[in-house]
Amino acid sequence: MPPPRPWAAKVAALAVAGGLVWLIGLVISGETGSELHAPGGVASFLGTATGLIGTYLALVMVLLASRIPVVERVLGQDGLVRWHRRLSAWPIVLILLHAVLITVGYAQAARTGIAHEIGTLLNDYQDVLAATVGLALMLLIGVLSIRGVRRRIARETWWAVHLYIYLALALSFAHALALGPTFVGHPLTQAIWSIVWAAAAGLVIVYRFGLPVLRTLRHDLRVVEVRPEGPGVVSVILKGRNLERLPVAGGQFMMWRFLVRGLWWQAHPYTLSSLPRPPYLRITVKGVGDHSEAVARLRPGTRVAVEGPYGAFTRHARRNNRVAMIAAGIGVTAVRGLLEDLPKGAEPVVVIRATTEDDLVLRSEIAALVSHAKGKLHELVGRRDEVALDGAALRRLVPDIVRRDVYVCGPETFVATVDATCRRLGVARGSLHHEAYAL
Ligand SMILES: Cc1cc2nc3c(=O)[nH]c(=O)nc-3n(C[C@H](O)[C@H](O)[C@H](O)COP(=O)(O)OP(=O)(O)OC[C@H]3O[C@@H](n4cnc5c(N)ncnc54)[C@H](O)[C@@H]3O)c2cc1C
Asked: Is 171 a domain residue?
């Protein structure tokens, strides 16, 4: 894969920040003192501002989710998830505020009641009904994303409802241009806003849909074998065309959609558990739920659609020559892939945690790769309370940890705990890289 270019991600972040500043400037400069002092002026002004900023942030969220390569390669899955969590409440809250403030402002201006003004807005104002449906969809997404609610619904339902964000944004576009004081009578601003939307839509179409379709057709992947690796864990060997053209680094994952009844409509992330050996690819999957358990029953010949490779858990993230890798459970897949791709001199110290010996999957491959790279392998087997991986243990196992890049992979809580321990031991934030097997 082409190495990540942090400067390109910084340029993208600056462009996003610049766009936000431009938008705020536009709203402020478009308002006159007399408009503000008129009845409902303040509420309408704030309503316009919250609507525009909220919509803009929603566009940014959609772009983050579309995994534009220059950004994705720098942020990786963890970074994208982190930004998604940080930003996600804002567009919904701001757009809801916009609806409330505009209704209040217009009601004050017309000296009428809120209920009457809602009726007027829905019936008489161009495209407001469509925008209201869009807002309802966003609220639905927001409610289903609340942690307590999300835990109760299937991930696929949550994901499918998220797709409504495209519809919600499309439904809201026209009313802003037709009614927004920032746009009405300002053809240049209208044109710039329309170009921003068209560019966002174009990027989504290219990277969210176009590139995955192209890769799927180009590589024409099919399952050739499903091989047991340990309790509840299988490796799936896939055969495809042109795999030497797949831009992948060790440690990356792809989204896999197995085209059989019951599975074709869901794509799940699984890491390549070795570098491609054209014409073959391999993933190693632990059965924890519907999809991952069904993987063990895949038949040879099953066609597979893919997205990716994605992820920044690669050798390109390194700052130091030497590395340490710490994984728990099925998190070894990323470590296995990355080990194969390390440059000379990395002398990896690898720490693998598992509950039982049988859970140490890909064990002999990892041992061989560590030995080849002149590294050290520590296997910690036992229950968490029996075999601690605390600061003292890490210092003992990796005495020079602060001079190494540390790659941590596994369940979310494991990654968060090891990350915090490493930080306490003095590992620099930039030398810590994680891949949590969670969304
Ligand atoms: C970047 C990344 C790489 C991964 N690589 C591997 C791998 O190489 N091998 C492997 O066995 N597993 C891997 N996983 C985890 C794997 O994606 C999930 O175990 C799988 O998608 C669970 O789906 P399910 O329908 O079987 O289980 P569900 O019944 O949907 O869920 C079971 C558990 O898995 C979690 N989960 C569900 N879907 C996902 C998902 N898409 N991503 C993360 N967690 C999920 C749920 O929160 C729940 O705790 C990876 C996850 C991520 C994010």
From this structure: yes
